[in-house]
């Protein structure tokens, strides 16, 4: 078992369908409230959307991949303008507003990831999910 697999195996994961289904990617998507808890009892609760009829309900691995990806998007971009440009939030004022909201959400996720995992754990997990 790799270091990343040991980390993933040690995490507790739960999810439930959110009471309020709003801002969905498509009408077929479902919004879930998910929680990851570390052995040290540090936890992170976050929203996750998927289309269970096309894929499946949320899994620990899928959710972990997504929040690591969101966190790394902030690390990858030098600032808000770089983030907006990189992810195509440049068409109009509404697009820029949504992009800035996404940037702030990714910053919050990055802080949560920093709280949950050590640098070594983050590196192992990012390597594990590199071709996910």
Topology of this protein?
Elements: H1 3-10, E1 12-17, E2 30-37, E3 43-50, H2 60-76, H3 80-86, H4 93-116, H5 119-128
Antiparallel strand pairs: 1-2, 2-3
Helix pairs in contact: 1-5, 2-4
| Strand arrangement, major sheet | 1-2-3
Question: Rg from C-alpha positions?
Answer: 16 Å
Between the first and last Cα atoms, what is the distance in angstroms?
17 Å
Spell the H/E element sequence: HEEEHHHH
The proportion of residues in beta strands is 15-25%
Derived structural class = alpha+beta
Tell me the overall shape. Answer: globular
Low-confidence runs (pLDDT<50, min 5 residues)? none
What is the overall pLDDT average?
95
How much helicity do the residues have? 40-55%
Strand tally is: 3
Number of domains: 1
How is this structure best described in words?
- The protein is α+β, with helices and mostly antiparallel strands and 132 residues long.
- The chain has one domain (3-128).
- Helix content is 50%, strand content 17%.
- The chain contains five helices and three strands; from the N terminus they run αβββαααα.
- It has helices at residues 3-10, 60-76, 80-86, 93-116, 119-128, and strands at residues 12-17, 30-37, 43-50.
- Strands 1-2-3 form a three-stranded antiparallel β-sheet.
- Helix 1 (3-10) packs across helix 5 (119-128) and helix 2 packs across helix 4 (93-116).
- It is globular, with a radius of gyration of 16 Å.
- It starts with a helix and ends with a helix.
- The relative contact order is 0.16.
